[in-house]
Amino acid sequence: MKKIFLNLGRQPITNSFLNKIDKKTTKKEFFYNLSIGFDKKNFLVSIMNYVNPKKMFNSKYAHRASSSKTMRKSFQQIAFKLKKRFKPKKCLEIGSNDGVFIKNFNKKQIIAIEPCANLAKITRLEGFTTYSEFWSKQLAKKIVKLNCGIDLIYSANTISHIPNFKEVFDAVLIGLSKNGVFVFEDPYIGSVIQNNSYDQFYDEHAHLFSLLSISKLLSNTNLKIFDAEITQTHGGSIRFYICRKNSKFRETKSMKLLRFKEIQQGLNKFKTYKNFSNRVKGSKQNLLNLLKKLKKNDKKIISYGATYKSTTIFNYCNIGTDFIDYVIDTTPNKQGKFTPGKHIPITSPEKGLNNSVDYAFLGAWNFKREIELKEKNFLRRGGKFITHVPSVRII
Ligand code: TMP
């Protein structure tokens, strides 16, 4: 039974950027209540009301995983690491987006699964076998029939999007070869608690995982975790290494240590989440106070990165064009549109980050270093970034 610890209020679909702002368009905008709960039986943190995946993952999906240099490099490194450690012959990625991971493999070696038709089209055109479907037992059966078992199933920022794990894990069991491995990574609840990054909660993140929760969830399946690691991706992610229960892999020492750290952090206790929820309320107040103060001094504030995360912040804190003039983002299909819920216009960094801007709120705070390096001119002429992670401040 999930018990609520945080209520982030009325929220839109984060991927629903609006083409225009008129009565007819805004009337059709879908909202739901975003509250987050903790299940003390399996230590899992999940949103209380799952949004129908078809509403989120469709042919209009805007996010392009390869739009950041940090992510391109990170996927290249993990692909290299996995090839070296497991020497897989046949591979598969669940949620291949625009192909940022699979590009590091031979086209004959890897299969892409991507339900968003617009993204599947990209990798298919590049010559990768791509199934534009949700990962399911049925699909796993079809793939195994055409190929032999899969030695490496990889997934990044996707498993946390799927409300029903049973289907995912059952399908993995169908797909994996005897000593095959399933490696997946998603934003880490331990980092969210530590960094006050409550904006990791949005419609797509049905769950935020810990080692404790995934261990519990797998305990009644024929899969086991044999390794796990924390990475810096997206401001703190967790990567799990999973295999069949009877496979050759043994639990690593670093995984045992991580389990111990999670217990020390209290990731198995409702109280930890309740305390976090109080800090989130404080973060909202501090951000509003800062923005009000800057506006009183006639400062121009914009936001950097039309991220899904910033949709949570803007809607929870009720921040619209009264504070943020516009959002800048490099993704061409976000430019010219309006942010979900608060309807802030989005433009390109070339047009938007001009001399009139005093402050830029880091909606894409998870790419802080990449952005600071890129925007040296903005900083040199006195422009400043604002962040809320781990606490609200001008950088
Ligand atoms: P994400 O945090 O969900 O990956 O989204 C990052 C967004 O920020 C994505 O829309 C691309 C955008 N972005 C920029 O506009 N400029 C940048 O330099 C970086 C790193 C990201």
Can you give a write-up of this model?
The chain is α/β, with parallel strands linked by helices. It has a domain of 222 residues: 3-Layer(aba) Sandwich (Rossmann fold), CATH 3.40.50. A 7-stranded mixed beta sheet has the order 6-5-4-7-8-11-10, sandwiched between helices. Strands 14-13-12-15-16-17 form a 6-stranded mixed beta sheet. Helix 5 runs parallel beside helix 6. The mean pLDDT is 96. Bound molecules: thymidine-5'-phosphate. The site of thymidine-5'-phosphate has 17 residues, from helix 13. The site of thymidine-5'-phosphate (TMP) has 17 residues, from helix 13.
> Which topology of the domain at 49-270 does CATH recognise?
Rossmann fold
Molecules bound to protein: thymidine-5'-phosphate
Structural class from helices and strands?
Answer: alpha/beta
CATH superfamily of the domain at 49-270: Vaccinia Virus protein VP39
Name the strands of the widest sheet in spatial order.
6-5-4-7-8-11-10
Largest sheet: 7 strands, mixed
Strand content: 15-25%
In terms of per-residue confidence, which ranges show pLDDT below 50 for 5 or more consecutive residues? Answer: none
Estimate the mean pLDDT confidence: 96
Q: Would you identify the CATH architecture of the domain at 49-270? A: 3-Layer(aba) Sandwich
Structure summary, number of beta strands? 17
State the distance separating the first and last CA atoms. Answer: 41 Å
Per CATH, the class of the domain at 49-270 reads Alpha Beta
Give the number of helices.
14
